[in-house]
Amino acid sequence: MNNVSKEYLVNSLSKGKREDGRKLDEIRKVQIENNVSKNAEGSARVKLGDTEVIVGVKMEIGTPYPDNLDEGTIIVSAEMLPLSSPNFESGPPSEESIELARVVDRAIRESDALDLKKLCVEKGEKVWMVLIDIYTINDAGNLQDAATLAALAALKNAKMPSFDGEKVDYKKKKGSLPLVELPVECTSIKIKDKILSDVSADEYKHLDARLTIATTEKGEVCAMQKGGEGTLTAEDIKEMVKASLKNGKILRKELK
Amino acid sequence: MVYSKRNDGRKFEEMRKMEAKVGVVKSADGSAMFKIGDTIAIAAVRGPRDLHPKFMQNPQKGILRCNYNMMSFSVDERIRPGPSRRSREISLVTRNALLPAVNLDEFPNAVVDVFVEIQQADAGTRCAGICAASMALADAGIPMKDLICAISIGRVGGKVLVDLDKFEEDYEEGSTDMPVAMLPRKAEVSLLQLDGEIKPEEIDKALELAKKSCQEILEIQKKALKEKYQNE
After folding, report:
1. Chain B environment of A77 (Cβ under 8 Å)
2. CATH number, domain at A95?
3. Which residues of B touch A57 (CB under 8 A)?
4. The dihedral sign for the CA sequence A166, A171, A175, A177
5. What ipTM was predicted for this assembly?
6. A80 in a domain, yes or no?
7. For residue range B76-111, what is the model confidence (pLDDT) as tens digits?
8. Closest residue of A to B115, CA-based?
């Protein structure tokens, strides 16, 4: 692939410069717009620079998993729309879109962001299913962090529909969801020996390795996903965790 | 029962409030948002670009592909993500609605892709999608002889009316929905569907209302296109 531009990129990075003038560990401007789809229980649009995603939360009554009879369930899925990038194609979900959804899911699940016991309607029989659907609108790099943030924003503004034991009434809204933690994800990538936060589409093209790190309000790490074909050292990981904690605070502030 | 007053207080020939914006998807070659009432459509155009597989290519001119999709949470009962029979049919009629206005002679072997996403639905989604797609094609600089405007004409409780909302579409005593797309310059009809009963003589009236409404839509579309290019 275009080696020249990778060399050029690495060269300017070693001078501490990024194409858009950001510092290596600096994220782009974040914007959250809440309630962008009124038939969803909750929804949000997140812009991270030029990257844009829309997430909606719908709720249905379902049956619990056999190992957690008194807990509601979460299902996250992602559509990497061909509308949002020349690189995405129509058809069944790609590996990338499945990974995107699963890594968002992991942050929410492993931080116990939702109190799933409160989503139980009738033990062993009926529980609320929380369906979180991610749609990419424009891919300018780092869909992962934008998607996680949008999912949390949508969960935060979601209102429960009412259920009379037989039918769900989507017009009659009740209280908020039992959201007790606000995990956010920050992805860093490594190009040669440089570590970058919140990468653009161009920078992403040249990554050697990437690491998504989900952090909680308490400053704990609750989920990780390493990607890319290259390797990371313990030092790299330490630096990435540090960047994720720092940038995570900035993203979380936007949620409040 | 006679439907003497509309649910939201509109006049029978009155459309819901519209909003349009061009250039909503940065990385696309052309894009637009069209909102009518609580229905929101986003469209993006990618191309002309290489078409694969090769056997689908047309050496005479470029081809137009359309993909209509509703976001899973755009309606009360969640829709499973991915194509359905309904969305594939609407993709097809959307393509046929746009094609008469588009000239792809300059682009042999290439494809122009149109992607329509319904972000929020309150009836009239295919028409909103066509209005957005038409602006996106213009924004992408695809040669066109006209814009395309679309509106749904309805018949509720014996009354012919313009731009059904979800309440009217689901009207208890039955409702008729007739989506129409037009090339407004000569009022050429490029999409026509009918769901429900209508008297033959009412079709004339419905088409007349569609023609009038499309002129209003055209003004909104042109204004949005001008806004983008004036700011640049």
Report:
1. 72, 81
2. 3.30.230.70
3. 73
4. positive
5. 0.92
6. yes
7. 999 999 999 999 999 999 999 999 999 999 999 999
8. A83
